[in-house]
Specification:
This protein is mostly helical. The protein has 11 helices and 2 strands, in the order H-H-H-H-H-E-H-H-H-E-H-H-H. A two-stranded parallel ribbon has the order 1-2.
């Protein structure tokens, strides 16, 4: 689970609504009506074009701490439900931290995508606070999944030792080949039958 976007996407695409105020009619329409889904996506796109900050997940600045907790709880519950439905005896989940969670200075690489340098400087001054929010969400998700009986590999410490510049693309939150190799090796270590990738 890549926290660079896997937590953002349910929120940004309209699959999750703030709080518990969503009506049952809206929930039903969102699940069954393609026209309603398209309208929600169009609304999200309009909002996204007006509020997006390069390199910062929207839920770090659009949601309150309580709302972020609700979102993490909902995603953890969905993952746990899926694993139970699959009947798997043992499930491992790798949690890949957001780049600014590993190193707040990673935010600076997104300046190339911002048209107003003054606005971006304001966000850069908040990098440490945004990193702390991202880390809190990651730790909460790990705790919820572990409490549900899943084996969780939180890669934050491993990626911190590697250094963010070796882990993340210089243009995005995506992993480098070196980081993917490290991820594969760590996953292999979780399974006694597997050997580390070469």
């Amino acid at each position: 689970m890549n926290l660079g976007n896997d937590l953002d996407e349910p929120f940004v695409t309209g699959q999750w609504k703030r709080g518990d105020s969503e009506s049952t009619v809206a929930a039903w329409l969102l699940e069954h009506s393609r026209a309603y889904q398209r309208a929600i996506l169009a609304q999200q796109e309009r909002t996204l074009s007006q509020t997006t900050v390069p390199g910062v997940g929207r839920l770090l600045y659009e949601l309150s701490a309580d709302e972020r907790t609700v979102l993490v709880d909902a995603i953890a519950a969905r993952l746990l439900t899926l694993t139970i439905a699959q009947g798997a005896q043992e499930v491992s989940v790798a949690v890949i931290p957001n780049d600014i969670d590993v190193d707040p200075s990673e935010l600076a690489k997104y300046a190339r995508y911002e048209s107003s340098s003054g606005d971006f400087e304001k966000w850069l001054s908040q990098a440490s606070a945004l990193s702390m929010k991202s880390g809190a969400m990651r730790r909460l998700l790990v705790a919820r999944l572990e409490a549900g009986g899943l084996r969780v590999l939180d890669l934050h410490a491993h990626f911190s030792r590697m250094g963010a510049r070796n882990v993340y693309s210089r243009a995005s939150h995506h992993l480098t080949p070196q980081a993917n190799q490290a991820l594969a090796n760590e996953l292999c270590r979780l399974s006694p039958q597997s050997q580390p990738a070469q």
